[in-house]
Amino acid sequence: MKSHLQIDLVRLPFLTPFTTSFGTETERNALILRYTKGDVVAYSECVTSKDPLYSYEDNSTALHIIRRYLVKMMKDEPSPAEFTEKARRIRGHNMAKSAVEMLLWDLQSKLSGIPLYKALGGSKGFAEVGISIGMSSPERMASLVQDALARGYRRIKVKIEKGREYEIIRTIRDRFPSIPLSADANSCYRLGDLQILKKLDNFNLVYLEQPLQEDDILDHSRLAKELSTPICLDESITSVERARQAFEIGAAAVVNIKPGRLGGLTESLRVARLAMENGIHTWVGGMLETGIGRSFNVSLASSSLVDYPGDTSPNDKYFARDIVTNPFKMTDGMIKPNDGPGIGVQVDEPYLKTCTRRSWLLF
Ligand code: OSB
Ligand code: MG
After folding, report:
1. What is the pLDDT of residues 91-120, one digit of tens each?
2. For the packed helices 80-87 and 94-112, what is the interaxial angle rounded to 10 degrees?
3. Is residue 159 among the annotated active site residues?
4. Structure pTM?
């Protein structure tokens, strides 16, 4: 049976701009992969964005790597684990790889007629949900925290940057002395900023996420010895080997697992298992995905290997209208993965079409 792979670049404006230490984003520009075979349609989303600010990958590099190298590695429908192995030949480019790897997970579970979260195995059947709040004035951020608590979020994470961290966290902690609160620096400090970071030890954060740069694993272990606040690594953990090295030198007490950053769900599960064996806490992060990308994160976040609430907020936080017709709803700070085959989301093809700026038919 003939199959087709198409990639659409879809533009969805955010309800409000999202600001981190690396910049402000006002819209999501998502590469959506669609694999069609008979009446089975599998989807995935590449977590890259327009610019290489969170990592070196962007939409153009991902599209290039997928078209030039990865497409031929997936044409014979390998299992996600087989694809992960084949794709190792290509250095880096985990986000491009993960888009294809997750497409294969959706395909495989749809062909077997089972939901993705069951295909992954060991699911609790629900994911605990936290929220990621972008930077704005400390007062505005505190009022967003209040809203989030009222909605039932189980952990509040706020974005910080050098020079604004103390005011932001002090303002929120003053108003909410005992909530589970964390801060995400997105790599904006160096070890020389130790004195700034030490001041945050007064605020009883659950963890401080990715204070130093991606390559600074050794410096994260030095920092961890100086701070009482646990360190969570995001950008730095790009493979299970990287995770092992980080755990061995005490660079992380917590890991933000993002399938996009790790090259897919196969590697993500390996990191989650290794973390559990080492007494390291894990949670599943997000990259402002549409409902398609989100559904992979929610399935993974429901794994019993994952013990902390993740950044899998329902997408009405980000978009006026999502490209799926059955978006996730949060009840009591929890989201259930969908029970349909594969990712279980119904893609709103007509609306997706109106949001599409360019398409590529790969085969
Ligand atoms: O560092 O976790 C991050 C968004 C884009 C890039 C990096 C990060 C984030 C978030 C958003 O924190 C989490 C979400 O998708 O809700
Ligand atoms: Mg982060």
Report:
1. 999 999 999 999 999 999 999 999 999 999
2. 160
3. yes
4. 0.97
Which two tokens mark 326?
Answer: 């059955």
- Minimum CA distance residue for ligand 1 atom 14: 286
Report, in angstroms and rounded to the nearest whole number, the Rg of the chain calculated over CA atoms. 19
DSSP string over 125-173: S-EEB-EEE--S-HHHHHHHHHHHHHHT-S-EEEE--TTTHHHHHHHHH
**Alpha carbon of 234 to ligand 1 centroid (Å):** 10
Q: Which residue among the candidates 258, 329, 336, 353 is catalytic per the annotation? A: 258
Protein residue with its CA nearest to atom 6 in ligand 1: 287
Q: Is 130's C-beta closer than 6 angstroms to any atom of ligand 1? A: no
pLDDT tens per residue, range 27-49: 999 999 999 999 999 999 999 99
For ligand 1, say whether the CB of 234 is within 6 Å of any of its atoms. yes
Every domain of the chain and the residues it spans? 3-113+346-361, 118-335
Ligand 1 pocket, mutate which of 287, 295, 319, 322 (most atoms under 8 A from CB): 287
CATH superfamily, domain 3-113+346-361, is: Enolase-like, N-terminal domain (3.30.390.10)
Q: How many angstroms is it from 299 CA to the middle of ligand 1?
A: 17
The CATH homologous superfamily for domain 118-335 is Enolase-like C-terminal domain (3.20.20.120)
Residue 257 near residue 233 (C-beta atoms within 8 A): no
